[in-house]
UniProtKB/TrEMBL annotation:
This is Protein CREG1. One of its GO terms (cellular component) is endomembrane system. Residues 26-194 form the CREG-like beta-barrel domain. InterPro entries: CREG (IPR014631), CREG_beta-barrel (IPR055343), Split_barrel_FMN-bd (IPR012349). Belongs to the CREG family. The lineage of its organism: Eukaryota, Metazoa, Chordata, Craniata, Vertebrata. The gene is CREG1. It comes from Eudyptula minor.
């Protein structure tokens, strides 16, 4: 029975996509699913580090990075935010001294909020704040990271090799979800990884 329900749900999703629609976000009471959904539907996020730069040392420093948790198909994300980085990048220089960071992703970058007339600051235009650290991926995970990123950001494959690009991931330790009125919801990494977007 569960298999039949899954096939029916998948068929509905495919019909929506074929009709030019999009998969709607989960309901607000499913905060872990919302976090997975928002990350999977975002191609970039704001990464905040503690600056190591002269004149800014110790201050928060936010920067935009392309990211991906998997190919863009519905329900295909791993939940792991992968990034393609170079040591030449200013935020990466910060991370070399302190790998702790926060990452914010928002449905404001998708058509969803505009379609519903939601300002990016409106809680109904869901955004997720992840806290954790950035680490280089191990060789065993590099293939997953490459597929996740290059499927969404194909130009990355042609970025200058002499910049010594490497795959990294955001190791999530804390998750805050703002997707409805009444304040932030806290989701544990265990809850987050146990659900599908």
């Amino acid at each position: 029975m569960a298999g039949v329900l899954f096939l029916c749900a998948a068929a509905v999703v495919l019909l929506l996509l074929a009709a030019g629609g999009a998969v709607p976000p989960p309901p607000p009471e499913e905060a872990a699913r919302m976090a997975r959904f928002v990350l999977h539907n975002c191609d970039w996020g704001a990464l905040a580090t503690l600056s190591a730069q002269e004149g800014l040392r110790g201050h928060p420093f936010a920067n935009i990075f392309s990211l991906s948790d998997g190919p863009p198909e519905p329900f295909s994300g791993s939940g792991v935010p992968y990034l393609y980085l170079t040591d030449l990048e200013i935020s990466v220089k910060d991370l070399e001294i302190n790998s702790n960071a926060s990452l914010t992703v928002s449905l404001a970058q998708t058509p969803y909020c505009k379609k519903h007339g939601y300002d990016p600051q409106n809680p109904l235009c869901a955004h997720i704040i992840f806290c954790g650290s950035i680490v280089k991926v191990k060789d065993s995970e590099a293939g997953l990271a490459k597929k996740a990123l290059f499927s969404r950001h194909p130009e990355m494959e042609n970025w200058p090799k002499e910049h010594n690009w490497f795959f990294a991931k955001f190791n999530i330790t804390n998750i805050w979800v703002l997707d409805y009125f009444g304040g932030l919801k806290i989701v544990t990494p265990e809850e987050y990884y146990s659900v599908k977007p």
